Structures are given as structure tokens and as C-alpha cells.
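User: Insulinase family protein. Structure?
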Amino acid sequence: MQTEVFQRGAVGRMRIHVLPTTRFKTFSLSLFAGVPLSESTVTPVALAPFVLRRGTRSYPETIQFRERLDELYGAGFGFDIYKRGDYQIVQFRLDIINDAFVSSSQSLLEEALRFLGEALTEPALEGGAFNAKYVESEKTTVLKRIESIINDKIRYAAERCLEEMCRNEPYRLLALGRKEELPQITPATLYESYRRWLDEAVFDLYVSGDTSLEQVAAWAGQYFKLPDGQPGGYRAAEIKPASEAPRTIVERLDVGQGKLNLGLRTGIAYSDDRYPDLLVYNGVLGAFPHSKLFIHVREKASLAYYASSRLDGHKGLLTIQSGIEIANYERALDIIREQLDQMRAGNIEEQELSKTKAMLVNQLREIQDSAFERIAFDFNGVVSGKQRSADELIAAIASVTAESAAAVAGGVGLDTIYFLRDLKEEAAHVQA
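Assistant: Predicted structure:
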């Protein structure tokens, strides 16, 4: 395993994390900007990076913006928008070749930081607001992305289950925002929201490559024109217990296959010392092809096209996803509940435990082969307030027993049952 460690510092509002390494021929940069999930800001925060990618002060036309990336030996630039705990995170990514491997007269890392800093803090403007053409175009882009979710019924069911389970929490909000708010956004209101976002966001800049913290900090201070202030931090997410009795939600759409999703609350977050036990619990339950849900619901009973579980460690949530014939709802639900009961009873076979641990360890070791994966892993620690190295997490997973996984299972409560089914009136015994 790697012995390289992140070096940390700060420049103004921005925390800086540098992983000096010669393993890769590129520099990998990630800039994370997080704000609390809020109904009033979620849509403009989601829209802003789409507009920022269209142009900067020096490269106001999109074609100029892209040509500049080409000039930087084909540097790659992109962004993601997602949720971590109770925060909406925008992550900008840029990767660029180390100038030691090309005939460049300039530091390509410096040019990458210059470009990223300008893309974030010095956007193309007209009349003191965002470019109207870019705003209207990107509003359409965001609208299409939101609407595309309903066409992907697996993702739609997953989002709806979380929305129902977290109906009284900010986490119910889609990271891409609310489509009904897009028409009201103007270039001026979006720019005003963007300026507030720069004032309020928690900023973390990561750089992996053959460099140093001192060098990155010097260039970051020069090229990121953020408002003055001190570095911020993330508050721990609210971890709620499951409802006393699970709620059942049945939604009808024009579908041929039912989607049965269950939302559970674990009471354990990423920072909890029991998190490794929870990882193993989820692995035995449904994260892998050898897991109980896959074997018993899909393989043995032939009731599901797919059956798996997914863990959100930052919110302490665990979700189960399955695609079933609509008439199999009751039977599939019974078998899923049975697997949850088996976990609580500690009925975990040694083979299930060892396979799960091996799969988790493999995943953690594979992280070391990707600079961006190593950055993402470290950022999980920053958001949660609990830093673990991959080696530490691997050691903790190795020490998990069937008994400790069963102890975790005892605290996992079923909160929400969500069933997406067809529009037909038969099989009316399935009721909300």
C-alpha cells in the first residue's frame, strides 16, 4: 500500500490538500465547494457550474475556453454536483500532463491552477451579470438532465424513495435542483446567487502530482479570487432513527416492471467507529453478487431482475433496490424482510463474511491506482470530520466479525417502502 500522505494548509477561505507523488504522469486537481442543502439555493447552485464552464474573463467565448484546454496539451476539465450529508457539493476536476513529459516552457500545473481559478472566480460577464445566452442554454441543459431521471426508472425509484424517506429533511432535494424554479432564474439573479455562493461555500482544493504544498499554496493564492475570510468546515449530518412503523408509498406510472425500493436508517455515519462493521453488513446484505439479496431474491426465488443494497455513510442511510414483476410485490417484500431478519439474528456464513471482506479490501486497494479516487476518499474524511487512511480502514474491516456485523444489524430500521408500479387497476391489494 501507499505511504504517501496528504500535506495540508490554507490560503484565505480555501483549504489546500496536496498529495506529492511521482506515481502518475499527470497533475490531478479537484476543487470542492459545499453549501448546506436548501430549497432556496439548490437550483441556482446547481445551475452555476454549467454557466461557469462556458467562458471566463480571459476566454469569454466557449470555443476560446475549449481551445485553451487544447493548448494545455489537451487538459481535461469537468464537474459533478452531488450530495454529501446535508450539503450540496460542486466538484470541479482538471487533469493535465506533468510538464516534465512534454516540451513546455511554462509550468503546466501553474497554468492549470490559473485556468481553474479563473473558471471559478472570474466568469465571463456582460453588463455586470452572466451572459444571457449562456444562462438560457444551460437552463435547458439542467432541465433535460432533471427530466431524464424519470426516463431512467431505476434511478427515478431510487430518488423517490429517498425523497419520501427524507421528506422533512433537506436531503430530500435533488442535487440538480428543482425544474419548476429554472424559468424564474435570470442572468442577474443567477450572478447574485453565485456571488453569495462564493461568500458562503466551504472550499477544498486538492492537487495530486509531483509538487509541494508550498508551491500549490502560492499559486492558489494568486489565481483564486475568493472573498476574504477564514476557511470554513462541514457540520455533521443529522442522523435520524427509523420511523416506528415503516411508511408504504405506491406510485403509478406507465411501467412494465415494478421497482421495489426500501429505505432504512442505520444510526451510523462515516465518522462512527462502527462504520467498518456497517460496510461489511451492507456487503453481506446486498452490495455484491454473493450477497443475500442477490442470491435469495434474484437467484433462488427468481423474483427480481436485480436486487442490491447501497449505503450512504454520510447520512446513515441504506437503500435496497429491486426490479420485480408487479404481481410478485408481496413475495419479494417478504423475502427481503427475511434477509434483514437473518442479518439481525447473526446468520452470516463464514464464506459470506470472507468474500465480503475480500471485495471491500480490493475496492480500497484499487483506489490507490487512481489519483482522483484517492482524492475522493480523503475528501470523505474531510466532510465527515473523521480521517482514515485506506490502510486503517482495511485493518478495521479485517477485524469485523459476524457478531459485530449482527450488532450493527440490530440498529438498522426499515423506514420507507416505495413501490413503483403500472397504471392498471388489478392487483389492488398493494395499497399505500
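The longest strand covers residues 26-36. Confidence is low (pLDDT under 50) at residues 427-432.
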